[in-house]
Amino acid sequence: MKTFTFIIAIATIIVGLSACEQVTEVIQSSTKDQSNEITIGVVLPLTGHLADAGKLMKQGYDLALDEVNTAQLANAQLKFIYEDSTTTPEGAVEDFNKLIHQDGVSVIIGPATSSATAAAFPVARDNQIVAISSTSGARGLGAISDYVFRVPLTTDVVTPIGFNATHAKLGYQRVATLYDKKDVFSSDREDALQQAFTEYNIEALTPETFQSGDTDFSEQLTRIKEGNPDVVFVSALPPEKPGILIQARELGISVPIIITSLTDVEVQAAGDAAEGAITFIGWLPTDDTPGNQAFVQKYTDTFGMEPNAFATASYTTVYILAEAIKNANATDATAIRDALANIKDFDTVFGKFSFNADGDAVYEPKVLIVQDGTLQPFE
After folding, report:
1. Which of 71, 82, 124, 257 has a Cα-to-Cα distance from 105 of 20 to 30 A?
2. Closest CA to 291 of 318, 264, 251, 269
3. For residues 165 and 161, what is the distance between their CA atoms, to the nearest angstrom?
4. Is pLDDT at 316 greater than 80 in this prediction?
5. What is the CA radius of gyration of the chain?
6. What pTM did the predictor assign?
């Protein structure tokens, strides 16, 4: 009996050790899987004034996330935590703090607007986490920190190129401007335009202003019409652009309207009133850039519509970030920051993409005009 008991004890120990080894293997496997995943915060407007644009942006993020993870382009699985900024700077700051201090992320994509970015980027700076905005284009925001980056072309890049191209062809000498005084990007573009007017000795009428959420622009547009300008420059966010175009044409303003970042969505909303409108932007669905036609087709098949510039910028941002994470071969903020700063001539649907010393985008901008209801090159 003693011998039998001893044998049973030895067998029990062996089985126990085997079970421990199996548990250890499971734990190690689980740890390995977790270490190969990086959680990224995404801050965008899903409610509020820019909710429609935010939903299109989310579609671009979702499509790219699926593609990047399926192809393992980042050498890690990316996981997104979406937060709604409610289209306010305060909401974006709250989201940044929540993602950093509760969720422990080292990277945040967003915010969307320049107003929200100006408020939230300092939070990224103070906590030394990476933030990369897909759509904020006002000047100077990239210089807030070496941890922050932006994918859209900024006003100091786009405005002079667009101004030079349109002035050379249209030869305007008397101009009017209308801009959103509450929006950082619109106000910044107005400042950039005024600088160009001064440099070229162009007569500018007294600027007209409105603010986000306004729907009646008749008083401002009536004064503009009475001023008899050669062209009208409009700086506005997506919800206001169709209404401004429609009301301008209804009031009999027939001169060219040069308007910020016009997309097919706003063109369709404005209808015939958008015809002849000119915009400065960095992308067209018809561009023959790496992967662009495949992206447009897949986005259209997935969501039942062509992508606009906001969805495309979101999609591109995920690919740029995935490239940086792969090159960093790490998931900490400092390594990803350094890898982003070293992005040079990376193939995207925008063409060759790089970041400059301030973390702002470098690629080829475009000047477009609405002809026959679609955006086409301004030639």
Report:
1. 71
2. 318
3. 6
4. yes
5. 25
6. 0.88
